[in-house]
Amino acid sequence: MSTPILEVVQVRKSYGATVALDDISLTVEEGELFGLLGPNGAGKTTLISILCGLLDADGGEVRLFGQPLRRQRRELRRWIGLASQDLALYPDLTARENLRFFARLYGLQGVELERQVTEILHFVGLEERTEDRVAVFSGGMKRRLHLAAAIVHRPRLLFLDEPTTGVDPQSRNYIFELIRGLNRSGMTIVYTSHYLEEVEALCPRLAILDNGRLRACDTLPRLLALLDGQLLLTVEKDNRDFLERLPLLPGVKSAVQKDGRWEIHTEQVAELLPRVIRLAAEVGVHITAIDARPPSLERVFLHLTGRELRD
């Protein structure tokens, strides 16, 4: 069995009396696009800083490529890329000048440096703006250049901390495609966000952090399987056949009726819905409203943490 590219073992970090990370343990396999989900203040940025070797943990261990990662291990840190939440760009420099600067920090020189800078600018769609000052770029363009600076040295492991902050929906989708392309090329990516829809769209496996604790770490389907789906059904008037037959339909786990509204729990929302409609038609019950709710990451998060994601 191959060694995970990243291993986190009982990592702890406190700032005075505030516990930022409380015994965090997880692994990331090579080639994964792994999500790290949590609200603001959950501990995501602190954890990423430790995993990048920028911050020391108070306890526990981080292993990168099977080797202990510490701030002084520069040879390991060279294989890491980081696009932080805050933009790390020089507005008075051009796009090309910014990438040259960051490439030199990673030891690139001469022909190799220029080749990498040109290729990465093309990859993020900024080849026609290479000589423009970053100060005139839109928010989406700055985010793409910020990503380019994190991958100019071709890291094996890339950390993206809230990479779509402040961008419009079109730019966000463009960034999503760039991330998927990097992952398809073999780059391992850890994607952190407090926007659950982003993690749900990108990451087959994810961890949920809240108040410095790891609430769950699993594949998206297994996390969604923690909860039943729901059908909320409003009918004009029940009759005896409907009352008796609805709870017996295949796929119904429970059905509770109150004031003309049914709440049906099921693992098969899509399959059960047409059965309910057919039954209503057979027995002459008029359905006035249907709300189908498959298990969602938002409901799972609420179930695990007891609060809304964005509070």
Tell me about this structure:
- The structure is a single chain.
- The chain is 35% helix and 29% strand.
- The strands form three sheets. It has a six-stranded mixed sheet with strand order 6-7-8-3-9-10, with helices on both faces. It has a four-stranded antiparallel sheet with strand order 2-1-4-5, covered by helices on one side. A four-stranded antiparallel sheet has the order 12-13-11-14, with helices on one face.
- Helix 3 (95-105) packs across helix 4 (110-123) and helix 3 packs parallel to helix 5 (139-151).
- The longest helix has 16 residues, at 169-184.
- The two termini are 41 Å apart.
- It has helices at 44-51, 74-77, 95-105, 110-123, 139-151, 169-184, 196-202, 220-224, 240-245, 269-283, 297-305, and strands at residues 6-15, 18-28, 33-37, 59-64, 67-68, 80-83, 157-161, 188-193, 205-210, 213-219, 229-235, 252-258, 261-266, 287-293.
- The chain has 311 residues and is an alpha/beta fold.
- Strand 1 (6-15) and strand 2 form a beta hairpin.
- It is elongated, with a radius of gyration of 24 Å.
- The model has no long low-confidence stretch (mean pLDDT 91).
- It has two domains: 6-224, P-loop containing nucleotide triphosphate hydrolases (Rossmann fold), CATH 3.40.50.300; 229-294, Alpha-Beta Plaits (2-Layer Sandwich).
